[in-house]
Amino acid sequence: MNGPGQITQLLNRWTDGDAAAADELAPLVYDELHRCAERLFRGERAGHTLQPTALVHEAYSRLIGESVPWQDRAHFFALAARMMRRLLINHAEAQRAEKRGGGELQLTLDEGQVAAASVAIELLDLDAALTALAAFDSRLAELVQLRYFGGLSIREMELVTGRSSSTLDRDLRLGRAWLQNRLSR
Amino acid sequence: MRGAVTRQEWIKVEAAFHQALSLTADQRDTFVTGFAAREPELVLLLRSLLAADADGGHRLFDELATLARSVLCRCRPRP
Fold it and tell me: Which of A7, A155, A156, B46 has the most Cβ atoms closer than 10 angstroms to its Cβ?
């Protein structure tokens, strides 16, 4: 049973301090994000831009499907942002492995595949930089993850973090600047 | 990027960055000059962060969406 009821129960348990509930919830959220990606591509229109943040909100609608206390919602989006990042990195690693599949195989790659592998490597670099940021300022890294992988608006982040919009804006600018410098080294 | 700065030093840089954002360009120059006098070992980091913020911090995350979309294309169902 993976319905909204189960998800809500897990969120409640997690909000109440049961860390094991997050472990149970993580694969459910990950799988739903993957399904959402497949479904959105299936119905993709010309010129449509699939955003990872849209996937997170879509997964929220499908998994929760009802209003929940904002504390639970905050926990869901924090987890979903982490799972979205993992999903992207898993796919990026697969693309990089494909590119590194040996000299002969590389000769058979078309331009599209090479381009896909290049952006995958950029994404992996960003992921590594974000991990480095988290090593000494986990709060900043978490905010960046919520905003850019979880797709939370500033208003939603105010609810999730309890910080003001002006503070969040400054923190996000600092996080972005640090990552930008790290990536340009 | 953070290099060898300590937690306490990072907190100083973070506070200075936040304050600098609230100032006009002229005020910011004066502020950074004052910071350099007080914290000569940290001013390079502060300047690089402010430069990155002014120059490309926003673009980086616009590009993230593009990167992510390209990577997510691998989720596309196979025909």
Answer: A7
